[in-house]
Predict the structure.
Amino acid sequence: MCGIVGYIGPREAYPILIKGLKRLEYRGYDSAGIAILNDNLQVFKCKGKVSALEAFVQGKPLHATMGMAHTRWATHGEPNDVNAHPHYSQSESLAVIHNGIIENYAILKEGLIKSGFTFQSNTDTEVLVQLIEYFKNSGISLLEAVQLALNQTVGAYAIVVLSKNDPDLMIAARKGSPLVVGIGKDEFFLASDASPIIEYTKDVVYLEDEEIAILQRGQKLKVKTISDVETFPQVHTLELNISQLEKGGYEHFMLKEIFEQPDTIRDSFRGRIQLENNTITMAGIIDHLDKFLNARRIIMTAAGTSWHACLVGEYIFEELLRIPVEVEYSSEFRYRKPVLYNDDILIAVSQSGETADTLAAIHLAKSHGAFIYGICNVVGSSIARATDAGSYTHAGPEIGVASTKAFTAQVTVLTLMALAIAQKKGTISEERLKEIMIALTEIPAKVTQILNKAKEIQEFSKYYTYTRNALYLGRGYNFPVALEGALKLKEISYIHAEGYPAAEMKHGPIALIDREMPVVVIAPNKGHYDKVVSNIQEVKARKGRLISIITEGDVTVKELSDHYVEIPETEEMLIPLLATIPLQLMAYYIAVFRECNVDQPRNLAKSVTVE
Ligand code: G6P
């Protein structure tokens, strides 16, 4: 949800800023802008992607050694040139970029208009920069003006402020939206995540809520709160490497990430499964074992694809642990009045670790005394830091907006957690534990076998290029897979798709089935195979076009299918790790045939830091 980059130091700022924006473009891409500070404070911005900004600034005087840049995902005000960031203050002596939402902008704006301020844009951000100017006009320092303004601000922000009259100073602050400070030799970097920083320095500081970073040329990093208390944040060392942020020969990040799954799944269980002594080691669980053993119930919360991973987790936890599990959309959970006990465990699952609703759900559960466990992909993210304990998924940076490898990594970690707790709780026998552990270690090779069918999947996907709707059906463990398959298709190809529990089809969607309607059925030979076959017959009787995901060697469903993909046999609870792969590929190829922007689908953003 909007990407922010900043630089101050001896180097030319523009190339660093533009490269940084490209790394952050997954966060939003409806407009982009840049401000540089030399003798003057200059802002260049326009509607469109970062490439449009690059074209727009061609030939403009951009020489400067400090500046900031922004790629936007619109919240307040349509995506156009004027609403793009940075925003100038009235006198054009200040400029601000912002990620987040200023909730009380209307009332602040009213006050500022009464004080003689006029506004160019419809954004909440412009209100903030004018407010800073309002305070600064009283003769106080830039830092004091920023502190006063932020004290009046309700909502979420990560901001960077430049001031024409403070030529060697850059101020940045955060609350709710992420902001990382990179510390180099005589230089500082700012970014929404570490990806624009990694090629210059590995030393970073993650700002906490209500902290302000004061980046003064030639001085050490200074951090103060908005109430002017100095803090001394820990410097972390990044473990990212630059090749993880590049396409590595693939046409799209999404395709690269789909193909990375044998490795990422392995990385998720590496070091955690010890087949030799039949144990699973997860530090977050061992350190808080009593919580898990005494939990009254487990609530899993997330959004989007991560929510689908939770649904798979629910089936696994209930089967292995015999503890009631509830899966909640974090956006609903946070605003309901949920009944929460202090012996509840909340498991928050998030690829980015920044989803605003999931973070709010954590705070809510915490305030009721629940124990909070996080499953995040991005190391050092807000959710990772807000939880009592947790496990990283180790899938590496996921850049394609449609989540793929993060999902299979989340399911892997949830499986490991359930197995580890079940062993301690005694709800699984040692033999059964071993069987599932072995099956899990075999998953990466099986994923590779499915990926080897990519050509086949590409071939038949072209028949669905012009389809307008699609139905995805699955039962049991594969119901969440149906939801995830449908989500992938609609996200990147803009084809309307619905995931449904196969039997529920009779209660509505069956009315939609005709020869135009592709129905994707996940029909492995485990679980409720016969029941699914009956559901397939119901589809065929209405002339629906059947695409099936079947177990190798299946004959019955294969014969009924227009197209099928065979997946290797595995434990029932692990089937989602295999069955999801062909659905990801199918969605990808259909979107490519439709000439859609696969990595940056319209209206979406990878990290949703607003409600
Ligand atoms: C956005 C992304 C999805 C993601 C969801 C939850 O909608 O486009 O891919 O599943 O947010 O994000 P999280 O980072 O919390 O998993």
User: Anything to note?
Assistant: The two ends are 11 Å apart (CA to CA). The first strand starts at residue 3 and ends at 8.
